[in-house]
Amino acid sequence: MKKAKLFLLTILCLVITPGIYAQISSKADVEFYTAEWTGERLPDGRPKVPDNIIERMKKISIEEAWGVLRNEGFHNQFEGNWMMIHDKQTICGRALTATYLPKHSSFEERVKKKGHDNGRVGAMNSWPIDMLQNGDVYVADAFGKIVDGTLIGDNLGNSIYAKSKNGVVFNGSLRDLQGLEKIEGFNAFVKGWDPSFIQEMMLYGLNSPTRIGRAIVMPGDIVLAKREGVIFIPAYLAEKVVINAEFIALRDEFGIEKLKEGKYTPGEIDTRWTDEIKKDFLSWLDANPDKLPMTRAELDEFMKKRNW
Q1: Which of 43, 116, 222, 273 is placed for a possible disulfide with 233 were both Cys, Cβ 3.0 to 4.6 Å?
Q2: CA–CA separation, 53 vs 37, rounded Å?
Q3: What does DSSP say about strands 91-102 and 222-226: parallel, antiparallel, or unpaired?
Q4: pLDDT digit string (tens) for 41-93?
Q5: What is the CA radius of gyration of the chain?
Q6: CB contact set of 141 (below 8 Å; sequence gap of 6+)
């Protein structure tokens, strides 16, 4: 009897409690998930990492981003082994997350009704698309389903690109590859392709934490997808990842130039720099301001904390 009462209470909570019937997050929920972020937020609560940081992030390698995240204690941010439409086209933007589960008929009907009562329109797999904003990357966990796991075809692909001017990362599959290839600027990282339609799946989470393979993704994380894989960068670390990688690139360019000139030996460049080399590097920066992808103020602030 106690177990029956507990079960009924659980079902009642799922039906009537906002944010619990499915993890379709409120603005307050998203702020909780991303509490480290102190900057501007989007209307749905996701961190609004500045556009210029996202543009600069596109030039960063997966390895450079991975190194910074590992040093910050993040070990579960990368997933590899993808198929993509264009293997040389980077995807980079703010994550809008979705989580799908195998269909559970009665629960699915409750989620649909609740969603429609709250103003959501159409099939559940269109709900995340309706929320997309410019620069977003639609990130969805479809539990790796290929056959009958095709979250979008070319119709929804066109809608996604019209809203976000960006691509998708799906732990699942797509259909209509030939049509999707025609969407200029669009790219997709998926686990497979199949001609089937989506079946026996239901949306469970929207704008909530999700899992993509061995990686965890928070709404508003910066997605960096390149041929070797996809890395998800917590919003509050995005600027640090970019500036750290840009600094290393400048340091390497200076080092190579001075090695070619014969001014320093490889042993001097490939170890902790002396005060003389640091001073020379700063003079080189002053003489080559066009090489800086960041402002000099940003660089100076970064170098105060840098262990050379």
Answers
A1: 222
A2: 15
A3: antiparallel
A4: 999 999 999 999 999 999 999 999 999 999 999 999 999 999 999 999 999 99
A5: 23
A6: 97, 98, 99, 100, 171, 172, 210, 211, 212
How is residue 118 written in tokens? 């709250």
Instruction: In whole angstroms, give the CA distance from residue 23 to residue 308.
Output: 45
Q: Which residues contact 66 (CB under 8 A, 6 or more apart)?
A: 77, 78, 231
Per-residue DSSP letters for the chain? -HHHHHHHHHHHHHHHSTTTSSEE--HHHHHHHTTT--S-B-TTS-B---HHHHHHHTTS-HHHHHHHHHHTT----EE---EES-TT--EEEEEEEEEEEE--HHHHHHHHHHHHHTT--SSGGGHHHHH--TTEEEEEE-TT--TT-B---HHHHHHHHHHHSS-EEEESEE--HHHHTTSTT--EEESEE-SSPP-SEEEEEESS-EEETTEEE-TTPEEEEETTEEEEE-GGGHHHHHHHHHHHHHHHHHHHHHHHHTSS-HHHHTSSPPHHHHHHHHHHHHH-GGG-SS-HHHHHHHHHH---
pLDDT digits (tens, 9 = 90+) for 121-135: 998 999 999 999 999
CA atoms within 13 A on the CB side of 134: 2
DSSP secondary structure letters along 195-218: SSPP-SEEEEEESS-EEETTEEE-
The model's pTM: 0.86
What Å distances lie between residue 86 and 69, 89, 149, 184, 230, CA to CA? 26, 6, 21, 11, 14
- Tokens 């602030």 appear where? 301
